Amino acid sequence: MSDYTIQSISTYDARFPLPPGAGTDSIHATSEYCLATTLLTTGNGPCGSGFVLTLGDGNTLVCKAIQMLVKPLEGMPIETVMADFGNISRKIADHPALRWLGPHKGVVQLALASITNACFDLWAKSRGVPLWKLLLDLTPEELVRVLDLSYLEEILSERTAVSMLRAQLPGRAQREAILKSGYPGYDTSVGWMDYDDAKVTELTKKALDQGFSAFKLKVGSPDESRDLRRAAMLRNLIGEESTLMFDANQRWHLPDALRICGELAKFGPYWIEEPTDPDDIQAHVELSRAVSPTKIAAGEHIANRVLFKNFMQAKALSFIQVDCTRVAGVSEFLTVSFLAKIFDLPVVPHVGDMGQMHQHLVLFNHIALGLKAAFLEHIPHLRTHFIHPARVQGGVYETPQEPGASADLKVLAQT
Amino acid sequence: MSDYTIQSISTYDARFPLPPGAGTDSIHATSEYCLATTLLTTGNGPCGSGFVLTLGDGNTLVCKAIQMLVKPLEGMPIETVMADFGNISRKIADHPALRWLGPHKGVVQLALASITNACFDLWAKSRGVPLWKLLLDLTPEELVRVLDLSYLEEILSERTAVSMLRAQLPGRAQREAILKSGYPGYDTSVGWMDYDDAKVTELTKKALDQGFSAFKLKVGSPDESRDLRRAAMLRNLIGEESTLMFDANQRWHLPDALRICGELAKFGPYWIEEPTDPDDIQAHVELSRAVSPTKIAAGEHIANRVLFKNFMQAKALSFIQVDCTRVAGVSEFLTVSFLAKIFDLPVVPHVGDMGQMHQHLVLFNHIALGLKAAFLEHIPHLRTHFIHPARVQGGVYETPQEPGASADLKVLAQT
Description:
- 2 copies of one chain form a homodimer.
- The first copy, chain A, is built from 16 helices and 12 strands.
- With 415 residues, the first copy, chain A, is α/β, with parallel strands linked by helices.
- The first copy, chain A, has 2 domains: 123 residues, Enolase-like, domain 1; 241 residues, Enolase-like C-terminal domain (TIM Barrel, Alpha-Beta Barrel).
- In chain A, strands 4, 5, 6, 7, 8, 9, 10, 11 and 12 form a 9-stranded mixed sheet that branches.
- In chain A, strand 6, helix 12 and strand 7 form a beta-alpha-beta unit.
- In chain A, helix 1 packs across helix 4, helix 12 packs parallel to helix 13 and helix 14 packs parallel to helix 15.
- The longest helix of chain A is centred in the N-terminal third of the chain and has 22 residues.
């Protein structure tokens, strides 16, 4: 392996219009998915590419913030960066003029995530391996050095994290079977809010034929009866043996959430996602208690490891939907996964990356951390834009083999 | 009064270098205070001016976000805006392309705060009264319509808020005495981190002579013994009868915070501020229990009303340091003050505005909401830059009489 040096750094504001209705939910009348992309160039070596998702013009703010934060990496060999990435990323986040804009949330956090994801991509490419293999091949000590565990010390010290990895070594060979069988997927794209019933029906049948057995429906319509009608319709379509999830995208205040989740529970959902304000830990606690055994999921708007720690400590969630394009990238995604392991909670990522990077991370989580394999969200709308789009066959993510984190966009391919 | 129409909207990126050492703490090696300013122009009428604080280059991001968010206000009469400001500000925050960058935190929240503060300034100017008087003269119903109470419904409905104001009407006349006596201040500027002992001593003596009886010392030095030595020095200087506060600006992880706060408690602080990560509710709960009867204060990094609700529900804080330049402006400041009243907690604002707007808001809180008058932080570094700088005499804020929110910068004065 070579210590490729980061020679130049740039950003790219990639915007992709979506087909009509795709991406819509109770809060977002989304019309485009935008990727605020960081590019790390190494002269004759590979180019590292990482991104975060935004939903439009905000992409310009994130790109500008990336340019402000990324400067310390210029001229550093990628191996030097990654040998101490926990400390380096913490210093980037603590930028004296920009920390005040967060800390660790909003635009500056998204910028740090984009930078971090590009670093991991470059690291894997420079070693000629896919990201999942890079992570699995690190020693426990090396792996823990890519994490910023600050403000988690009372629960997750570096020593604890190393011990957790060591404790999982005996079962690894067995769990590596998943590299051959592939990681199960679930289909979010049958049930966008603005799809009419006919379209939901058509897409669900198609997804069943393709081998999917888990489906998500957007709820939180102003017309509550529409939610219930469509929930019944989808359950009827997929049968009792398939898995159904509901996603309200934060629509309800607590009193409404308590009432409506009670109604939706009758359709046997695997989870109800983002029922209310994503900052409201106490509301999630009350909801989780009230709708039990129905389970509550959230994560795409939980901005950092400390907030996740609090959600877990309060027993507010049953599924951890951390997203490496929302927390501070691959590194903090892994940190939150360690926390989930401690609290014995499943990690089922939200995929702001359309699953491209997360297909690597869930393999690490299962094999190295011993997290029970669940399934990974699948959203196909951007697949034609990636050089190596995730291959989902028979409802299963095939293990990626190309070097890197599968984040390269065609539009940026060097010609 | 006239329905002045907002004809044009602009931003101004104001930056003010600080004297050496001023503004420094355990986290921020601050060298300039920057105000991301919104200007609302009304043709022949007054110009509304509002801002938020940042600590440098991030100001450009906030100004850009203001420009993206503020468009719906163009062409609206200010009275129309303010008659339904709770809903209008909520719609601005829910911008379909920008909400994803928060929601309600980071750059987009700061932008909303700047816009909101400009609206309140314009409203007060258009009625020819200082902001405190505008707020006091509103009916309870009118006041509550400037608030966005969404996601607080289980605790603070509109009806509850109106009732709270009505319940306080009988004692108002008596509490209005504070308009004459002035609102007590406390002095943060004696104890910045990088000031040496001689400077702290000199400034403290001067402040004592000026009538201050409450002082804040920055702690969280890498050298713990320095904190303890300076705490002893300052306590000795001001005597047992004066009030002393410590501010760690998030420096310690929980195990360190537990230990060091125990040491600092020996100097009889009125509070210990921001001992650890500002997102970590559970850590604040554990600290509050451990150091009792010493009290924990925080707020300058608590980004919105829902987070404040959670801190209060968890009994994590004893002082609520909400700041109208950190939450979504004057409106959300007032909302958090209602919550504090419900939880029987004192509101002692952090003053990202140097006290300019907050001198109005604490008067409202005391007179209309019946919150016990405490004291208001005083930071004088920018006073020469305001057209109407807060007048602090004898340790007391004199009640401002000029129309508006006291936010006008000299650099923007129309010539």
